[in-house]
Design brief:
heterodimer, A: Thiol Ester Dehydrase, Chain A, 4 helices, B: alpha+beta, globular
Chain lengths: 144, 157
């Protein structure tokens, strides 16, 4: 199936599973996406391979960062009518708390949608949404 | 007598010991490439499993994030007499161009300021030369109290 067709069918069914399957890195992270009405949640199920510091233990900053970026991308693929993957222009990550060895969730806010650029804020949390472990702020270039 | 190792080799070996205890570094296959106090380089080989866009086969940005985060830690590591546990406070990455499929990506970094609490680092990801970067990045790391993973004893000069 063509990528554009895959996008259309995933949007129609609100099931992004096949889309995640088609992107090797997202698959490597074993991402899940939960869409309930207007609410979008991206889930990074805990796995030992995501650990950066085994003594604490804590999630690798790169794993959390990659997860935030994926969450932003999938949010845009779901929300927008793009035919290709948006391109990350820049990405700013604030690490607020240690990532515990447990499942991590991400919610996305579209701060501004321009003609060509989408500005997103992505919050990753574990125990509760009001205790974010990391905050991503990024610009994505959308296709014309 | 042990065979003499260059300070670079010694650092690379020590960092590898440290990096190898991190499952995520192992999973991505991050390896030390070259070491100088003013430019520490890690390498990640191209892997199909790390692709972010199946159409272009370009590596996902998350791989670049992990590579740079690890290289940043590495560059702080070589500036200190002993390894202190630290946490990434803030990381900013600008993606300048896509990585070329099938090519290994290098992540170079320098820690340009150390304070008792913080380390300021900058670096970039590239294929051949840092003058032609795939992504540029800056980061701030904070030292935390906690047990060290390994000691960085006997700092070579």
């Amino acid at each position: 199936m063509k990528f554009a067709d895959l996008l259309t069918s995933c949007r129609a069914s609100s099931d992004l599973g096949p889309l995640v399957q088609s992107i090797p890195y997202a698959n490597f992270l074993n991402l899940r996406i939960d869409i309930k009405g207007d609410e979008f949640t991206c889930i990074l199920p805990f796995e030992k391979k995501l650990i950066g510091n085994p003594i604490l233990p804590a999630l690798h900053g790169g794993a959390t960062g990659g997860f935030l970026e994926c969450a932003g991308l999938f949010y845009l693929l779901w929300k927008m009518d793009t035919k290709t993957l948006p391109k990350t222009i820049d990405f700013n990550i604030d690490y607020l708390r240690t990532g515990q060895p447990r499942d991590t969730f991400a919610n996305v806010v579209m701060v501004k949608l321009g003609r060509r650029v989408a500005n997103l804020r992505i919050e990753a949390w574990q125990s509760s949404p009001d205790k974010p472990i990391a905050l991503g702020h990024c610009n994505f270039m959308l296709d014309a | 007598m042990e065979e003499m190792m260059s300070p670079e080799e010694e650092f690379a070996q020590r960092w590898r010991k440290f990096a190898d205890v991190s499952p995520y570094n192992r999973e991505l296959g991050l390896l030390p490439h070259s070491v100088r106090p003013d430019w520490c380089v890690l390498k990640v080989d191209y892997k199909d499993s790390l692709v972010g866009d199946p159409n272009t086969r370009v590596l996902h940005g998350g791989v670049i994030t992990a590579l740079l985060d690890a290289a940043f830690g590495f560059s702080i590591f070589v500036k200190m007499p002993q390894f202190r546990p630290m946490a990434t406070l803030d990381l900013r990455i600008d993606y300048l161009r896509p990585a070329t499929p099938d090519k290994a990506v290098l992540g170079g970094a320098v820690c340009y300021k150390l304070t008792p609490d913080l380390a300021f680092v900058r670096g970039c990801a590239y294929h051949e030369s840092p003058d032609d970067p795939i992504a540029t990045a800056v980061g701030i790391y904070m030292f935390t109290s906690g047990s060290t993973v390994i000691q960085n004893e006997e700092r070579p000069r």
